[in-house]
Amino acid sequence: MEKIKLSLGDRSACIQLKGAELISYKIGNQEYVWQADPAIWARHAPILFPIVGKLKGNQYTYKGQSYSLGQHGFARDRMFELVSFSETTAVFSLQSDAESFSKYPFLFELQVSYLLLAEGLEVSYKVRNLSDSEMYFSIGAHPGFQCPLQVDEEKLSDYLLDFHDDNLSELHLYPLEDGYISLNKRRMPLSGGRVTLANELFLNDALILDVLPPAKVSIRHRETGRGFGMEFADFRWLGIWSKAPDAGFVCLEPWNGIADTVDHEGDFTQKLGIEVLGPKTSHLIRYRMFFW
């Protein structure tokens, strides 16, 4: 069994064991999750662990030793174990092993839980430190959504990006320089907390911002109201990404962790946004996706 299907009324979700990755969410016959066209972007909704984003030179140091780790870490490419499932829930687990330890010298368990709801899907990440010393990590979500939903009838500019704050007039974005974070933020204007989606928004890669109250974002068709959204108060940053022009998807990415800054010198313990977990303790966060 390599895929687990959840169902509730006319809604269904499908998760694969590789990466514990959501690969489908449907209302009736309408698919909302990007279907991983390999010619454009060959993933659906990868989990980012134990790093988010890119390390300088794909390297970091810990206690004087150098390690290699590719962008967004390794969890998205590993096979998870199915711990339990029911008609509306599924729990998956990934534990450290010799392969992971050569890249990431910590003993851990990453548990990923999915709960199918009447209005969407709740995703929980539980990180356990299995060792007697501190553990450093980052974790994030990277779900891709089909946008536009009606490929032959709609275009990207038919959709609004909404931060659910009528008083929000601009975003302060972290620019990327060769994949690394610049702390010299740039401004992007909004109107009543909204902006029309356009290819031009993604010419310089992802939009990256601090999570702002109410920690909610949605993308919906300006006329029909059909779309999707997310609540993510447990997270520190939000990335919004697509590939211009007209890739056919938009990703909404809540992160606890971020790419190396342009001036980072490689010490993993000093990395911006790194999480620290005490010995034999755990860290639980969750977010919810909504579909209309």
Quick recap of the structure?
This protein is mainly beta.
Present the secondary structure layout:
Blueprint: E1 3-8, E2 11-16, E3 21-27, E4 30-31, E5 47-48, E6 59-62, E7 65-68, E8 81-85, E9 89-95, H1 98-101, E10 108-116, E11 120-129, E12 135-137, E13 139-141, E14 144-146, E15 159-162, E16 170-173, E17 176-177, E18 180-181, E19 186-189, E20 194-196, E21 207-210, E22 216-221, E23 227-231, E24 237-241, E25 249-256, E26 275-277, E27 282-291
Antiparallel strand pairs: 1-2, 2-3, 3-4, 5-13, 6-7, 8-9, 9-10, 10-11, 11-27, 12-26, 13-25, 14-25, 15-20, 15-22, 16-19, 17-18, 21-24, 22-23, 23-27, 24-25
Could you describe the 3D structure shown?
This protein has 292 residues and is an all-beta fold. The chain has one domain (3-291): Beta-galactosidase, Chain A, domain 5 (Distorted Sandwich). 1% of the residues lie in helices and 45% in strands. Strands 8-9-10-11-27-23-22-15-20 form a nine-stranded antiparallel β-sheet, with no helix packed on it. Strands 5, 13, 14, 21, 24 and 25 form a six-stranded antiparallel β-sheet that branches. It is globular and about 55 Å long. The mean pLDDT is 97.
